[in-house]
Each structure stands twice: as structure tokens, then as C-alpha cells.
Design brief:
Layout lengths: L1 E3 L6 E3 L4 E6 L3 H4 L4 H4 L5 H4 L2 H13 L3 E7 L10 H5 L10 E2 L2 E2 L22 E4 L10 H7 L4 E7 L1 H14 L3 E10 L3 H16 L3 E3 L1 H9 L1
Parallel strand pairs: 3-4, 3-8, 4-7, 8-9, 9-10
Antiparallel strand pairs: 1-2, 5-6
Helix pairs in contact: 7-8
Bound molecules: dicarbonimidic diamide.
Length: 221
């Protein structure tokens, strides 16, 4: 068992029943010209998470821990895109429309795919999800249960949206979640701080929070 110094108290996990989940590290959210920037966001706020995630990903690959990637997006025919999501924000260019990196948040398009720095390797499942949570309308739960996974190390973007929704869904399903504070990011610094506090508050109401350095140190020792 590995013990990580975390908030609100030590997070203990067995690597053989743990998965690293990397949420929505897609060009549409992280790169200039992507959907995130088109919405008026400063993508540099999200890019701070790339290097820390790379370090954790490399270590987990070396230790042969299960690694799962997710992408938010929709079918090209938009049949899985709720009208409410399509019209939200009254955008002149929104989901399904053509942007600089292809159709926005559409599977198969360049913008929808994961950034080069965190490119999935063969054998690492990619979960394509139509919503904010990684469990809703996906086979994530089945993949985790088939592999006997009990704990999740959570990384990705954005902290208060898809990371939070996934952690809440996972917590309700009985998974223990450690969120790595420097491996998740928000376009809004105040949301980043509040979202992390919410997870660990009240005795770890949704899970645990720790810097990735604490996890890497625990794995080395
Ligand atoms: C958003 C996400 N923010 N991956 N998606 O729309 O958090």
C-alpha cells in the first residue's frame, strides 16, 4: 500500500486497484484557437497542469498502473448533443460549428483530440463522454469494475466543471478519489481554489487533495 500526505488526511491506495484518470486535456480547451479561448478564456491558466500531469503519467506508466483518458465531445451528427447544451450561451460559433481546429468538440476533429504532450498510448482506454461527468453515458464504470479498480488519482480540466462532476460521480459510486492540486486547472483562479477546498472539506466529503509531489515522493519510497 502507498500512503500519500493529503488533505484532509493521508490517502492510502494499492496501485494494483488504482487508476490514473486524465480528464479532457483536449486542444479545444487548452490551445489558442480552441473552443475555450473562443469563449473568452485565458488558456494559459490551464496549461500549467500539463507538465505536472506528464510527470505523473510517466511514473504511472513505469509502474504499470491503469491509465484512462477522457474527452468531452459529440457525434458528428450531433445526435448525442442535448439542445440545451447546443444553445447555451447564445454563441455565434459553438459546439458542432466549424472553428480553426475543425468542428468544435466533435469526435474525430483535431480540436477534440488530446494535446500532443499527453498523447494516450496503446492499451490506455479513452472515454468519449458527451457530458461533464466521465461516468454519464459512458462505459467507464464497467471498465473500472472489470479491472477491479477502487481508487482514482484524478487530473485534468477544468477543476470546477468536468473534474468536479467526475469526482462527485465517482464518490457516489464508492471510488476513493485523490485529486492532484497542480494537475488540475481552471480558467478562473478563484474557482480553482474553491473547488479544491470543496473536495477535501468536511472530512473529505468528495475525496482527498494533494500536490503531485506528495504522490511522487510516496511512490519513490
Ligand atoms: C468544460 C470541461 N469546462 N472539461 N469542460 O466545459 O471542464
Amino acid at each position: 500500500m502507498i500512503t500519500v500526505k493529503a488533505d484532509p488526511y493521508d490517502f492510502v491506495f494499492d496501485p494494483s486497484t488504482t487508476a490514473l484518470i486524465i480528464i479532457d486535456m483536449q486542444r479545444d480547451f487548452l490551445e489558442p484557437d480552441g473552443f475555450g479561448e473562443m469563449l473568452g478564456n485565458d488558456v494559459s491558466q490551464l496549461r500549467t497542469a500539463i507538465a505536472p500531469i506528464q510527470a505523473v503519467l510517466d511514473t504511472f506508466r513505469q509502474h504499470k498502473v491503469t491509465i484512462i483518458h477522457t474527452r468531452e465531445g459529440h457525434r458528428p451528427d450531433l445526435s448525442d448533443l442535448p439542445v440545451a447544451k447546443k444553445v447555451r450561451g447564445h454563441l455565434s460559433c459553438g459546439i458542432g460549428d466549424v472553428g480553426p481546429m475543425g468542428r468544435i468538440l466533435i469526435r474525430g476533429e483535431r480540436g477534440h483530440d488530446i494535446i500532443d504532450e499527453l498523447c494516450p498510448q496503446t492499451g490506455e482506454p479513452i472515454i468519449d463522454k458527451p457530458g461533464k461527468g466521465s461516468f454519464y453515458a459512458t462505459d467507464l464504470q464497467s471498465i473500472l469494475s472489470n479491472r477491479g479498480i477502487k481508487s482514482l488519482i484524478v487530473t485534468g480540466v477544468t477543476t470546477e466543471v468536468c473534474v468536479h462532476t467526475t469526482v462527485r460521480e465517482a464518490n457516489d459510486r464508492g471510488f476513493e478519489c485523490l485529486v492532484l492540486a497542480d494537475c488540475v486547472a481552471s480558467y478562473f483562479p478563484e474557482f480553482q481554489t474553491a473547488a479544491l477546498k470543496m473536495i477535501a472539506a468536511q472530512g473529505g466529503i468528495f475525496g482527498w487533495v494533494a500536490p503531485s509531489a506528495n504522490l511522487l515522493k510516496a511512490l519513490q519510497s
